[in-house]
Amino acid sequence: MSVTGLSKFVELLRKYREKLSDTEKAWIESAKTGCKKVTYTTNNGHHTYIAEFYEHPNRIHNDAYKKEKYMATILASFGLTVYLIKETSNGGSKIDALVNDIPMDFKMVGQGNSAIKQNYQKGMDKQHCMGIVVHLETERTYTVKIKGILREVPLEKAVESYTKSHTNGLLAIWIEDSQSFKTFDMQKIRAAHNNATHGNASAEYSPQH
Known about the structure:
Elements (H helix, E strand, L loop, with lengths): L5 H13 L3 H10 L4 E8 L4 E8 L7 H15 L4 E3 L12 E3 L2 E7 L6 H10 L6 E6 L5 E5 L2 E5 L1 H6 L9 E6 L4 E6 H13 L6 E3 L2
Parallel strand pairs: 2-3, 5-6, 6-9
Antiparallel strand pairs: 1-2, 3-4, 4-5, 7-8, 7-11, 9-10
């Protein structure tokens, strides 16, 4: 099955993996400890996903786990290597998974103008997190402010506005209805924004709540 945007996601994961320090690599290998191979089938009423991935047996089977398992099944069904790693002792702030050996968090978001931005920041605040995979049911336009005027812009333009308060990282958005990925390197987006700002760029994007 050919999935739009998958190759870009895989390539960006590879580039992030090449930059891992020895300390980061050691932590990633330790996070895999105890994980067992599992097979899951999931169906959302429109699409069925069947996949094998790795999961730590102490995962708490709550509503959050159901969403994480669903996301892991989708990613693994496209050939990505996924580990749902061990929970923290307090159920708190550890990332959800390793995706092709990159520590990532999973988020299922609604349609609000700031939903992706807020969930990206929330996930990136977690220790060891290097990226976020967002599940979006359908793509839409977003309201942003350009030179003080509210305008409707595509998803890509909205993401390009995430330049001020966000940690650098990888953002991959899985769009369910179009069965496609849109992937962004937030470090490059912020660097381009900073360069444009220093060059007196004529427009600045700001998402509206």
